[in-house]
Design a protein that fits this description.
With 396 residues, this protein is mainly α. The chain has helices at 41-55, 68-79, 86-103, 113-125, 131-150, 171-176, 186-199, 201-213, 217-221, 269-289, 314-326, 337-350, 355-362, 368-377, 379-394, and strands at 3-9, 12-23, 30-38, 228-229, 234-237, 240-242, 252-254, 263-266. Strands 1-2-3 form a 3-stranded antiparallel β-sheet, covered by helices on one side. A 3-stranded antiparallel β-sheet has the order 4-5-8, with no helix packed on it. Strands 6-7 form a two-stranded antiparallel sheet. The radius of gyration is 28 Å and the shape is globular. The relative contact order is 0.08.
C-alpha cells in the first residue's frame, strides 16, 4: 500500500506519496516510487491508486481472488481522477450498486456471458427498469470489464456481445397513449399562469419563465442576472443546478450534460418585463437584509433566514407548481415543471416553428417526447398538405 504524508515547503504544506515497489534484482536495493507536490491529501491518494494500478502492486495481481466488487471499486477510484462531474460519478456509483446485486462476490474470471445477459434481462423483466437506466448500467459494466482486460485480469469480456432488451409496446399501448396529457393547451396555460399570479410574484416569474423559454428546472434555478441581456432580449444557458442531498449551502453549479445544452436564446418582451419586475422586488429585499444576503447574483433566490440569497431547490418549483394546479381544478393532468418545457414545444409547433429549430432552442438534439408533441400538434398541417396535393392532382 502507498504511504501518503504531509511535508513542508516555502509555499506551505504539500502532500506526497511513497510506494514500495519490491527489490531491484540487480542491486538488492528497495525500489520506491515517490511523487510530491500535491495540494490536497485526497489528490495524493488518488494519484497513488493510479500509480499502483500501473505498477501492478495492489492485490489485484492475484487474479484468482479478484471479485467484481473489488474491481468496480478500483475502477471508480481511477474514473474519478479524470475530472468527471460529481453528478456523473454519483450516477456511476448508483449503477455499480445495481451490478453488485448480481456480481459483487463473484470472482471476475467466473462471470460469463450467459450470467451477464441474464442480469440485463432480469433488470428489464423483473425489476422493470427503464431502457435508459439499463443502458447506463451496461455502459458502466463495459468500462469496468474493459479496465480488467487492460490489466490482464480476465481473458474475455462477458459484456462485449450482450444486448439490452427493448421495450415491447402493444397496439393497445400505442393507441391509449395520450400525448396531450404531457403538456398544457393554450387556454390551460392561461388559466395556470393566472392562478400563479394570484399566489405571489416570484412563483409567477418562475413558472412564466419556464413556460415562455422551455428551460429545464435545473437551468432556471442556476440562472444568474449576468446571464440576461435586457437590451438584446437574450438569455444565456451555461450551467445547471446540482444538489442531491438538498443541503441549501452545499449546492453545485455544473456544466450542462451536453454541448448542445449550452445556448443563447432570444426571448419576448413579456419575459424581459416579468424578470425586470422580479429584479426590482429582489433588490428591495436585498437592501433591507444587507450583509445577511448571500449575493451570488441568482435570479431566483431564497428569501428566508438564514438562507437569504441562496438558490432554490428544484423541488421548490415542483411544490409551487402543485400548489398552483390545486387552484385550477379544471386541469386534471399530472404535470411537473418539465411539462412546461413540453408546453413550450407545443406552442412553438402551433406557431409554425420547425422541429429542428425547437430542438435548438430547447438545447437538445433528440428527445422522444418533444418529437411526439411536435407531431401531434402539426398533424392538422400534414392533413392540409395532403389535401392540397389531392386538389392539385384532381385539376390535371
Amino acid at each position: 500500500m502507498a504511504r501518503v504524508q504531509k511535508y513542508e515547503t516555502k509555499k506551505g504544506d504539500r502532500w506526497m506519496f511513497i510506494i514500495e515497489n519490491g527489490i531491484d534484482p540487480q542491486t538488492g536495493n528497495r525500489r520506491r516510487v515517490v511523487k510530491r507536490g500535491f495540494l490536497k491529501q485526497k489528490d495524493a491518494k488518488n494519484a497513488a491508486k493510479e500509480m499502483e494500478y500501473q505498477l501492478g502492486v495492489r492485490n489485484l495481481d492475484t487474479k484468482s481472488n479478484i471479485t467484481f466488487q473489488e474491481m468496480a471499486e478500483e475502477w471508480l477510484s481511477v474514473y474519478q481522477l479524470t475530472s468527471r462531474k460529481i453528478s456523473t460519478v454519483r450516477v456511476r456509483l448508483h449503477e455499480i450498486g445495481h451490478l453488485n446485486q448480481y456480481f459483487a462476490q463473484y470472482k471476475l474470471k467466473d462471470i460469463n456471458k450467459k450470467m451477464y445477459q441474464n442480469m440485463l434481462t432480469d433488470l428489464k423483466n423483473t425489476k422493470q427498469l427503464a431502457h435508459n437506466t439499463i443502458s447506463g448500467i451496461h455502459g458502466t459494466a463495459r468500462m469496468i470489464f474493459k479496465r480488467a482486460m487492460e490489466q490482464d485480469l480476465i481473458v474475455s469480456d462477458p459484456s462485449q456481445f450482450a444486448f439490452i432488451p427493448k421495450d415491447k409496446k402493444t397496439v393497445e399501448d400505442i393507441e391509449n397513449t395520450k400525448v396531450e396529457d404531457k403538456y398544457l393547451e393554450k387556454h390551460e396555460l392561461k388559466l395556470f399562469l393566472d392562478a400563479a399570479k394570484d399566489m405571489d410574484e416570484e412563483t409567477y416569474a418562475m413558472l412564466f419563465t419556464l413556460a415562455w423559454t422551455g428551460f429545464r428546472a435545473g437551468e432556471l434555478v442556476a440562472l444568474k442576472w449576468k446571464d440576461i441581456d435586457f437590451v438584446e432580449n437574450t438569455i444565456n444557458i451555461t450551467k445547471t443546478y446540482y444538489n442531491p442531498k438538498n443541503n441549501t449551502k452545499d449546492y453545485h453549479l455544473l456544466p450542462p450534460k451536453t454541448a448542445g445544452s449550452i445556448r443563447k436564446i432570444i426571448v419576448e418582451d413579456e419575459v424581459i418585463k416579468t424578470l425586470q419586475r422580479h429584479k426590482i422586488r429582489q433588490n428591495e429585499i436585498k437592501l433591507q437584509i444587507s450583509q445577511e444576503y448571500y449575493d451570488e447574483d441568482f435570479v431566483f433566490a431564497r428569501m428566508n433566514a438564514p438562507y437569504f440569497g441562496y438558490p432554490h431547490f428544484i423541488k421548490t418549483i415542483e411544490n409551487r407548481m402543485k400548489a398552483v394546479l390545486k387552484r385550477v381544478p379544471s386541469i386534471t393532468k399530472h404535470l411537473t415543471p418539465h411539462s412546461l418545457r413540453h408546453t413550450h414545444t407545443s406552442l412553438l409547433a402551433e406557431a409554425g416553428v420547425e422541429l429542428l429549430q425547437i430542438m435548438d432552442r430547447l438545447g437538445h438534439t433528440d428527445d422522444e417526447t418533444t418529437t411526439q408533441v411536435y407531431l401531434h400538434i402539426t398533424k392538422d398541417r400534414k392533413k392540409e398538405a395532403s389535401q392540397k396535393f389531392g386538389e392539385l392532382m384532381r385539376n390535371l
